TrEMBL record:
Lineage top rank: taxon: Bacteria
A Pfam family assignment: APH_6_hur
Coiled-coil blocks: none
Record's protein name: Streptomycin 6-kinase
Region (Disordered) location: 1-24
Organism lineage string: Bacteria, Bacillati, Actinomycetota, Actinomycetes, Micrococcales
InterPro entries attached to this UniProt entry: Kinase-like_dom_sf, NH2Glyco/OHUrea_AB-resist_kin
């Protein structure tokens, strides 16, 4: 079902309780493990629990998303909502905390939360398309989309740390774990990928050192790619909200990398280094960040991603491409 297909949604909501559709992406990703397959067998009961708890009329689930069952809904009070039932995993453990912090301040309004079942009830963003799907912005330069994203990122980072921040993971612990994986995977795959040992060593060292030299700590989104920025016209004017966080507490410069890499196609341009330099400055000016730190994080995370692709996906072609991108980022991290 498309996000704008209100007639189909209304017909679906009128059906009431029934069999639960599991989107292919969710079945493929979560169903690939024993724990995930067991969770999928419990999913109909979780959906019924949410339906009963909030008096929901549910539409067919959205097809996207590989770690949660997400569907449009109407509450008993007629609220236009989304119910999200998350497969329990470490990266999503702090999602409700972050969304409560950002509710109506850069994030969608969190209407309620059932922590026992990892279920969130959110006010629905409409029209709800992602940053790279906005027709008006697509007619303009990628820099205009990045300016929108930078302003939203600054809004998220301006939120004060909540009293429950102790329950959130830290960027430092996450990055330390990645550093170990970079070194281990490089031993197994670095030679076949033609990886520069100096680049790999620098990436691992940055993952360990950057958190300790951060000038401030905020709740970072953790996965601020263009698809996680949704258009919302609820106030009568176009605003943007950030969804699906993988929140941690730490260096705010950790966040921009997915935006800078995925808005437009910078590495297909004639001079990616110069383009990334100017775009990084734009985002950093809007979000109050240091471009050199953003580039350092981008380099380290790009190298880590390349080795992950080789180790976990066997995608040598994409891994080699990302190692080349890491070298580009390293020239900006000064």
């Amino acid at each position: 079902m498309t996000i704008d297909d209100d007639d189909a949604e209304s017909r679906s909501q009128e059906r009431g309780p029934g069999p639960v559709t599991v989107p292919d992406a969710l079945a493929r990703e979560v169903g690939s493990t024993d724990d995930g397959a067991a969770w999928l067998t419990r999913l109909p009961g979780l959906v019924d629990r949410a339906r009963t708890r909030w008096g929901l009329r549910l539409g067919e689930p959205f097809p996207n998303g590989a770690a949660a069952w997400t569907a449009p809904a109407r509450t008993r009070d007629g609220e236009d909502a989304v119910v999200k039932i998350v497969f329990p995993h470490e990266e999503a453990a702090g999602e409700a905390t972050a969304l409560r912090l950002w509710s109506a301040r850069g994030g969608p309004q969190l209407l309620d939360h059932d922590p026992e079942t990892w279920t969130l009830l959110l006010r629905r963003a409409r029209p709800g398309h992602g940053l790279e799907e906005d027709r008006e912005l697509l007619e303009r330069r990628p820099e205009d989309r990045l300016a929108v994203a930078g302003e939203l990122l600054g809004l998220l980072h301006a939120a004060p740390l909540p009293p429950s921040a102790d329950g959130l993971a830290t960027v430092a612990s996450y990055a330390e774990r990645l550093a170990g994986l970079v070194r281990e995977r490089a031993q197994r795959h670095g030679r076949t990928l033609g990886a520069d040992p100096g680049l790999v060593a620098e990436a691992a060292a940055l993952l360990e050192d950057l958190p300790a030299t951060a000038g401030s700590a905020v709740v970072v989104h953790g996965d601020l790619n263009p698809g996680n920025l949704l258009a919302d016209d609820a106030t009568g004017a176009r605003t943007w909200v950030a969804i699906d966080p993988k929140p941690m507490v730490g260096d705010p410069a950790f966040d921009p990398w997915p935006l800078l890499t995925q808005v437009g196609e910078p590495f297909r341009e004639e001079s990616p280094a110069g383009l990334l330099r100017s775009r990084s400055r734009l985002v950093c000016a809007a979000a109050g960040l240091d471009p050199s730190r953003v580039a350092a994080w981008a380099m380290a995370r790009t190298v880590e991603s390349a080795l992950w692709r080789a180790a976990e996906q066997g995608d040598r072609t994409r891994a080699v491409e990302e190692l080349s991108q890491g070298r580009t980022w390293s020239r900006l991290a000064v």
